[in-house]
Sequence to fold (179 residues):
Amino acid sequence: MQLKNTLTRYGVVAQLFHWVIVALIITQFVLAKWADGLSPVKKIGILATHKSVGITILLLAVLRLTWRLFNPAPQLPAGTPRWQELAAHVSHFLLYALLFIQPVLGWLMSSARAFSVSWWGLVTLPDFIEPNKAAFERLRDWHEAIAYTLAAIALIHIAAALKHHFFDRDDVLRRMLPS
Fold:
C-alpha cells in the first residue's frame, strides 16, 4: 500500500481522507433530516452531534488540503478532453471550498443563535458573532442552500467517476479505491 499519491493513483492517506469525509457528509445529511422532525429537547442532542461532525469535517478538510498541497493528485488519463480536465479542476475546487464554507456557516449560525459549538464535548469553540435572530435566519438559509449545492456537486462528481469507469473504461474511479 502506497501512502503517497503516484502519477497514476491516490495513496492510502488521500483515499482515507476522501472516504471518511464522504461518510461524514452523508452522516450530516442524515442527522439534519432526522433532527427536522424531533421535539426541541431531542433535537438538541442530534444537532450537537451534527455540529461535532461538521467541525470534524472542517478539521479533516484542512488536513486533506495540506496533504494535497504536498501530494499532487494523479494525472488524468492521456487523451482526456480539455473541457473535462477543466470540469474536474472546477468541481474539485468547489468541493474543497464547500468543505470549508459549510462548517463555518454552521458555526456562525450557531453563534448567531447563542448556541455554542462543542466539539464532541471536549472543546467549546468561541462564538464568531453576537446573537442576532436576523443573522441566524440568513445563515440558516445559506447553510441549507450550500448543503444542497454540495450534494449536487457531489452527485456530478459521482456521475463523472461512473462515466469514466463504465463508459470510458479508464482508471479514474479505481485510483481512488483501495487496491
